[in-house]
Design a protein that fits this description.
single chain, alpha/beta, eight-stranded mixed beta sheet, 12 strands, globular, Glucosyl-3-phosphoglycerate synthase, Nucleotide-diphossugar_trans
Length: 406
Amino acid sequence: MADFHQSGGVAEFHNLRSRPVEDLIKELESFSRNRKISLILPCLYSELEGPALQNILNELSQVKYLHRIIIGLDRANEEQYRHAREFFSVLPQDHTVIWNDSPRMLEIGQRLETLGLAPEEPGKGKNVWSCMGYLISCADSAVMAIHDCDILTYDREMLARLVYPVANPNFPYQLSKGYYPRVGDGKMNGRVTRLLVSPLLVSLKKVIGPRDYLDYLHSFRYPLSGEFAMRTGMLPDLRIPSDWGLEIGVLSEAWRNLAPLAVCQVEISDAYDHKHQELSAEDASAGLNRMSIDICKAVYRKLAADGTVFTSNVIRTLKATYHRSALDFLEAYYNDARMNGLAIDRHTEERTIEVFAENIVKAGHLFIENPMETPFIPTWNRVQAADPDLLTDYRNAIAADAEEFR
């Protein structure tokens, strides 16, 4: 049985196991008659060959309240795009596979490059941004949800619980964030949240003092989850980071654009497992190593925008404070794991903390040297202001790809 604790930050919805999911789904089907609900699936072609996606499609095929599914396909050639079209054809809902690497999409990218509005790097952020642009051009959905394509423990209840708070017209929420325990194969997972984000937020409050933004981020049980839903009125003005700071970036955008009472988090699963990133301790451009730097920079940028001054002395103090705090967190997680019969490799976890501590400094120096760095992809409102025809041409290019390579 879940608890019913409210932190006082953002509203939290628990799974108290007191209502059948079928009741929730019936309500969503009723809401969807007047408030169309769409789903975005950012996808690598390699995930079509993985162990998770076929089950995800089997579950989604039973979801009647979805009006549209948009699949953003990355790292695919023409043959693989054709295969992806066939692979996703099992979905009974209206669905579109966007081939992000097609010649037509590359031409659209060149137009954005000429305008100085192109995403800085490929990846999930660019994929999600592109799918949002297509959804904006369709102009027929009131609610949008996003989740990853590598969830090994997926079932349709996850989506129903994620979407419900923003689909219910009697609720005030504009954004819903999913959370869950990261447990799988007898281990406690979720290293970046456990060992970086939580102790970093605590340490920042000690070093720079209380900040409402830090309290807001710390109120999320799993701030790095890839599952969120929002009302589509937010999309044209939403800034999407192109780096690994996507999840923190979206929460920061909600903080910038919405009142806290318009944001909620919802428990969507008892057991969640997906593909795990390597630490890549020797390679700062890959894995959790790169992710931790980008997340730190995202937090620093937001705090600086609100008036916090970062210096080298502040960053050095933050590193020392973080290291002690992270070890304290590890002790609690280790004992929690033992009590629940789960495994934690303390040596590996402490090594991970050491890498993250170094990256807190690296990210700080990178930010201080280039405080005006903006990894955010321009909003779709800005793109439309610069080139009013681009969004229509973008949608037409997607349709032309589908027609030519059917």
